[in-house]
Amino acid sequence: MPHADSAMIPAGLDKEAFWSHVHEQLGYLLAGQRDWVTNLANASSLIYNSLLAFPEFADGDRMVNWCGFYIDSALFPAPKLISPKDPQAPQPARLLLGPFCGKPACQLIHVSPGKARGVCADAYCQKKTLLVKDVDAYPGHIACDGETKSEVVCPLLLKLPNEESERAIGVLDLDCLALGGFDEVDSRGLERIAKLVVDACDW
Ligand code: SME
Fold first, then answer.
1. What is the extent of the structural domain holding 185?
2. Which residue among 24, 76, 130, 159 has its CA within the 20 to 30 Å range from the CA of 124?
3. What domain of life is recorded for the organism (predicted)?
C-alpha cells in the first residue's frame, strides 16, 4: 500500500473506531524505523491528515488546524559539523518545536516550574493530558495561531529501566478552530497514540 493511503479513513466510523483505526495504521507506518525525527514526522502527518479525512474534524468551522510535537531540547542532537555545542554546559528546561503539520508555530516553549506557562509546558510538567475547551480562558496559553479556539495536549512519557517513574520527553499537541473541539474520547485516543510513538523510537 502506498504510504499516503494510511491516512485514508473508511466511511461510517464513530470516534472510538476512528482513533483505533489511526492507531493501527500508525503501528504499520512506524514499523522497522526507530529514528524519532522520521517517526514523529510521519506520525504528525498521519494524525493530521486522518483527522481532516474524518467528517467531525474536516468541516470548515470544526477543522483541526495543527498537529505536532514539542520535544525536550536535551533530546535534540548536538550539531556535529558546525558549531559543536558543549555537552557539559547546563541547559535550561525548554520544549523545542518538532515535526508538525499546519501553519508555522512558536519554536521554543520555556518550562518554568510554578509559573503559568501555556498548555504544552503544563502538560509536560504535570505529565498528564490537558483538554482545553477554550484556549482564551487558559492561563498563559501561547497563541501560535489566533484562529485556534481549543486544544488537547498529551505528554510523551518514557519509562527507562533504571528509573522508578516515567519521565516526560515532549508533548503531542492538536489544535482546533472550534470551541470545545476535542473531548475525552480524543484525549484517550491521543494517549494511546503517544505511547505507540514513544515505544516505536530510540530516544
Ligand atoms: N498553544 C500552545 C503552544 C503551541 S501551539 O498551539 C502550536 C501552548 O499554549 O503551549
1. 3-77+89-200
2. 24
3. Eukaryota
pLDDT tens, residue order, the chain (203 aa): 778 888 888 889 999 999 999 999 999 999 999 999 999 999 999 999 999 999 988 878 889 999 999 999 989 876 667 766 676 766 667 999 999 999 999 999 998 776 768 999 999 999 999 999 999 999 999 999 999 999 999 999 999 999 999 999 999 999 999 999 999 999 999 999 999 999 999 99
Q: Is 157 in the pocket of ligand 1 (CB under 6 A)?
A: no
Sequence-separated contacts (24+) of 117-122 with Cβ below 8 Å: 118/142, 119/151, 119/153, 119/173, 120/70, 120/95, 120/153, 120/171, 120/173, 121/95, 122/153
The rounded Å distance from CA 23 to ligand 1 centre is 23
Instruction: Please report the sign of the dihedral spanned by the C-alpha atoms of residue 154, residue 156, residue 159, residue 162.
Output: negative
Q: Is residue 83 part of a domain?
A: no
Whether pTM > 0.85 for this model: the answer is: yes
CATH number, position 65: 3.30.450.40
- Whose alpha carbon is nearest atom 6 of ligand 1? 144
Distance from C-alpha of 120 to C-alpha of 6, rounded to nearest angstrom: 27
Ligand 1 atom closest to the Cα of residue 141 is 9
Asked if the structure places residue 99 within a domain, the reply is yes
